[in-house]
Amino acid sequence: MKKILVANRGEIALRVMKSAREMGIKTVAVYSEADRNSPHVRYADEAVCIGPASSKESYLRGEKIVEVAKMLGVDGIHPGYGFLSENATFAKLVEENGITFIGPTPEAIEVMGSKLAAKEAAKKFDIPMVPGSEGAITDIAEAKVLGEQIGYPILIKASAGGGGKGMRVVNSSDELEEQMQRAQSEAISAFGDGSVFIEKYVGSPKHIEVQILGDNYGNIVYLFERECSIQRRHQKVVEEAPSSCLTPEKRKAIGEAAVKVGKSCTYIGAGTVEFLVDEQLNFYFLEMNTRLQVEHPVTEMITGIDLVKEQIKVARGEKLSFAQEDLQMRGHAIELRVYAEDPMNNFLPDIGKLVQYKKPEGPGVRVDDGYEEGMDIPIYYDPMLAKLVGYGKDRAEAIDRLLRAIDDYKIVGVKNTLSFGKFVLQHEDFVSGKFDTNFVGKNFKPEYLKNEADDEMEIAALVAGHIFEGGKRVVGQKTNNGRGNGKSNWVRNRSSYRN
Q1: Which domains does the chain have, with CATH numbers?
Q2: Catalytic site residue from 251, 291, 337, 494
Q3: 9 is catalytic
Q4: Is residue 331 over pLDDT 90?
C-alpha cells in the first residue's frame, strides 16, 4: 500500500495522514470548497476538491471519492469517522473498484450498523443484553404490552442511528404513543429509517466502551476500555482510559465480551463495542461502532499503540503483531472534546473566525485538531475544534495536566467548551469517579460558568485600570485552585473563558 485517500476532513484526516507519512505512504486529501485552506489539504501529498460546502455535495459523495481515488492510483481509502465511515454501500463500492477499504467488511458494517441486527448477532455468543424488544416495534398496542412487561421507565431507540437521535425516555404508558411517534419521526429525518425498538431504561448507568482490533486470520484482541459517561444530549464530551470503576476481574470480563461481539461478525480492523454498566457493575451490550472512535487517542496513550497504523497494517493483509497477553495499560489519559459551542446557552454551536488560536504544549499533553489561527469555523460540519488529551502516571496527574492544558489553550473569536471541561474536571463527583451519564443534568448549570466569567471580567477591568503595576499583583485575594499552588483566580483562569 503506497498511497491512501482519506475520505474525511479536519482533525481526523490530518491525524490519519500523519501516521501514513510515518509508514512511508503517500496521502490524498479530498475537500469541499469550505475547506480549501484547511491544514489537512496542505498536509496531503495531493488534494482534490470534490464539491460545495454541504457534506451531501462533497464528503458524502461516495462515487465521486472513488472516482478521484482511481484517477490518482490510490491503493486504499481510510474513511475516518462520521460521513461514510459506517456506510456498507460505500465500503462495497470501494472494494468493487479494486481499492482496499481500510476498515471492516461491508457485511460486518451492515450487521453492526443496525442495533437490532447487532443484538441478534451478539445473542448467539451469550453477551448480556438490556431487556427489550426482539425486533422493530411499529404497533403502539404491542409497544404498550411490552412496556408493561419490561417495567417503566423504558427507552425508545432508533435502530439505524446514534448520537441521541430518535431516542426517547418514557416514564409511563400514558406518554408512550406520543414519544414513539416523535422517535420514529426523528429517526426518519436523521437516518431515513423509522424503525425503533424498546428496552429497559437503566437509570444511572455508566457508558463504557471497549476498543478491539481484529485481523484477517481470526485474531481479535481488546485494548481495554474507555469511560465515556460525561455526555450532553447523549453525546460524549469527556472520555478517559481506563475506567476508574472497573475491577481487574470486570475489566477482563467486559473485554472478553467485546471480543465475542467482534467474533459474531468476523470483525476486521479497529472497532468499538459499547456497554451500559449499572451501579452493581453488571454490564449490558449496547452497540458496536465499526470504525475509529473520536476518543481513540486515550487508548493510544495508555497502550502505546497507534491504532491508525494497525488499521493500515491489517488492511494490507498483515497479522496482528501482538497477542492479548502482550497488551498492558500504562498510566491514565483523559480527553476533552473542545467544541465551538456555548455551554452557557444549551451548548448551541457557534461560528466565527479564530481571531486567536494557540494550542497548549508540555509534558503529557496531546492536541488533535484541524484548525489554525485566522480560519473561519464553518456552519456545515460538526463543531468540534479539537481533542485535548491529558496523560499522566495516574488519574490525578492526568487531571492536573489536562487542567493546565485548558488554562494554556487560547481561543478567541468563538465560544467554546474549555470552561465546561474545567468545571467537569474540578467537580468532586468526577474527581472521585462517582458519576454516570446523568452527570451534566444533575450537576451542571450555565450560571456556574457565568459567575466565573463575571469574576474574570471584573479582574480584567482592574488590570486595565493599572491596579497591577510592573507586572506584580498588588491587590486581590489569593485563591487555591485545588492543586495547591495558591495562584490568584485571574492567573489560574486567564484563558479558560476566552469565549
Answers
A1: 3-102 (3.40.50.20), 131-200 (3.30.1490.20), 206-443 (3.30.470.20), 449-492 (no CATH)
A2: 291
A3: no
A4: yes
